[in-house]
Write a structure and sequence with these properties.
Elements (H helix, E strand, L loop, with lengths): L1 E4 L2 E4 L8 H7 L7 E5 L2 E3 L14 E6 L5
Length: 68
């Protein structure tokens, strides 16, 4: 499966990655506070487990970094 993630094309295993939550876990972002946009639609965290990932999707992931 080919996705565009934060502007870069990536080939991912569609057997292992079926939902947004699976994608975040595969990218080691499962425990971080992130904002996910799928095909220009912002998803609430509660939607991650139920939102399917499909070939050709465009995903934007933003995570917050503290600092001063």
């Amino acid at each position: 499966m080919k996705l565009r993630i934060n502007g870069q094309f990536m080939d991912l295993d569609e057997v292992k990655i079926q939902t947004v939550e699976d994608l975040l876990l595969s990218l080691d972002l499962g425990v971080k506070t992130v904002v996910v946009e799928k095909n220009q639609e912002i998803l609430h965290k509660e939607q991650h487990a139920a939102t399917p990932i499909e070939d050709g999707d465009t995903i934007e992931i933003v995570h917050f970094v503290g600092g001063g």
